[in-house]
Amino acid sequence: MAIDRRHVGYAFPTFKVTVEPDRLAAFARAIGERDPVYSERIAPLTFMKVLEGEHGSSRKILEVLGVPLARVLHAEQQFDYVAPVLAGQVVTVSRSVVDLYEKKGGAIEFIVIESVFTGEGAEVLGRSRQLVAVRNPSPEARP
Amino acid sequence: MTVDLVVAPIGAVVAERAFDALTREDLARYAMASGDTNPLHLDPAFARRAGFPDVIVHGMLTMALLGRLVTESFPARRVLGFSARFGAPLGVGEAVTCRARLGGRDARGTALELEAAAGDRVVLSGRALLAPDATHG
Lengths: 143, 137
What we know:
A: 143 residues; alpha+beta
């Protein structure tokens, strides 16, 4: 069940998401963050993952690639920060599949998804790079 | 526990914190707040079908705890980068300790080597890059 390599370069339609203060506060509560700086004003370090997941984009990218959710694991995550993401800000998110490769003779495939976050003046706020591992059944176990 | 980054030797543990075990309610709250409703973190039957004994903690939630360790321990430093490798699953109900070691200092900033461990099993290893200290150049 190899993922078609022609999906490298696939770009999810760019979308805008508002950093709603209520949502920021709920996220801060969910990670146990009590510093009001990170629940009221500045998004915590991992909040860009929430922004990029808007519109079910992560699941939709997997659907486009034909990968069942039950086989995926989040293997690695990287964030680069240029400017803080602030409560109330409108952020534009551009996501794309930048690489696909396999290890162990295809038993594990890897999907690399990058996101670029920009502010209202098109200034870059940060970037995210996610490595998703897809565990494939062994050939003899395949139907 | 926090140590001054300017004087600490390379390799020294500069921040460490033990977090309470995450409960099913914690995972449900994180799923709601983050939008990551993958049943691997919520539905024990789904998790078993995927080969795990029970639901596992969102890797991003463990990463968020490490992020808190960094921002709470070094509030004066701007974070330029933060990365994680999710090496092993963390099960619901397992307590985790987050730790930062000084990785290096140069003109770009201060690098921290990060890990989250359940007992002696490392579930997440990562790095953070902090901007140079304005007061120390």
